[in-house]
Amino acid sequence: MTLNASHPLLDGRTADSPLITAYRGGKPERRPVWFMRQAGRSLPEYREARKGIAMLDACLTPDLAAEITLQPVRRHDVDAGIFFSDIVIPLKLAGVDVDIVPGVGPVLGAPVRTAADVARLPKLTEEALEPVREAVKLTVAELGKKPLIGFAGAPFTLAAYMVEGRPSRDHLGPRTMMHADPQTWNALAAWAADASGMFMRAQLEAGASAAQLFDSWAGSLGLADYRRHVAPASARALDHVRGLGAPLVHFGTGTSELLVAMRDVGVDVIGVDYRLPLDEANRRLGGTTPLQGNIDPALLAAPWEVLEAHVREVIAAGAAAPGHVLNLGHGVPPEADPDVLTRVVKLIHSVEP
């Protein structure tokens, strides 16, 4: 399993970029930064492009998805694009009845709670992923030497949505299932792992230079449950892309106690949320793993001198890690001022690596 010789990682476009250099533990020519949810509601041009178009429709319209991915790169001069899509797109493309309800989030037509429910799940096909590949190709053609980051939702987070049928605060359904009916849980997690892995692989093969696995809800788990009931499925998802040679990032919110286990599923970089200082994350990981993060998004609305001091603290805390990519410790809030984000990027780029 290898990338095509014309892939940006192999043809000289992105292999030496600041982002990929830092992801691989090297010293980049400038400090790399990008923002989770940088392509989204904080940008007026995004709101204009999305006007009257449903979220999943926007994700599956290749030229629109490409344009939305490129918007924050043009505006902020960030060091990478993050592919505009949604973690439930692989479910949608497989034929699962799912939609994004404004103000709610992903909602399934019927939850998946029994062995029979899992057995009825349709399989994702390579053909169904063609709109994803097309959008990635369009984006990469415009990005030039800046890398595109692909992504997918981790199996636990996908399965949590499927069991609950909608967003949940405590994720009791999946946490109960993994103990009460481990066979059904394992079958569902395996289905989600393959959907997630195929989604990531389609993006990487089409031109993305790295990929990030988002485990949005893993913070609801204790370490023992994560290792036993979740890590094997995350490793299975990553098996789909492990041999491609692209850097792989793993991020979850509220996962400070899981960082070592999250690395050990087989990734190169760990994303750290805003709750844990990067020097402590580096210590827990043994000083061997490049880090990504972890500016507190709440401080984007603070006075500039407060935000600037915080950004400099994050840079200093990440200095001991073998590589550091600046990011937020969560996604860009919808109400964030785009000009503040641009100013943060300029500040980060002004600090010698």
Automatic annotation (TrEMBL):
Keywords recorded for this protein, A-Z: Cytoplasm, Decarboxylase, Lyase, Porphyrin biosynthesis
Location in or out of the cell: Cytoplasm
Domain Uroporphyrinogen decarboxylase (URO-D) residues, every copy: 32-41, 149-165
EC numbers: 4.1.1.37
Chain positions recorded as substrate binding sites: R37, Q38, A39, G40, R41, D86, Y161, S216, H330
Annotated metabolic or biological route of this protein: Porphyrin-containing compound metabolism; protoporphyrin-IX biosynthesis; coproporphyrinogen-III from 5-aminolevulinate: step 4/4
Enzyme class at the top of the EC tree: lyase
A family per Pfam: URO-D
Catalytic activity: uroporphyrinogen III + 4 H(+) = coproporphyrinogen III + 4 CO2
GO annotation, biological process: protoporphyrinogen IX biosynthetic process
Record-linked Gene3D superfamilies: 3.20.20.210
GO molecular function: uroporphyrinogen decarboxylase activity
GO cellular component: cytosol
Residues annotated as site: Transition state stabilizer: D86
Family: Belongs to the uroporphyrinogen decarboxylase family.
Function: Catalyzes the decarboxylation of four acetate groups of uroporphyrinogen-III to yield coproporphyrinogen-III.
PANTHER family: METHYLTETRAHYDROFOLATE:HOMOCYSTEINE METHYLTRANSFERASE RELATED, UROPORPHYRINOGEN DECARBOXYLASE
Oligomeric and partner information: Homodimer.
UniProt protein name: Uroporphyrinogen decarboxylase
Biological classification of the source: Bacteria, Bacillati, Actinomycetota, Actinomycetes, Micrococcales
Recorded name of the encoding gene: hemE
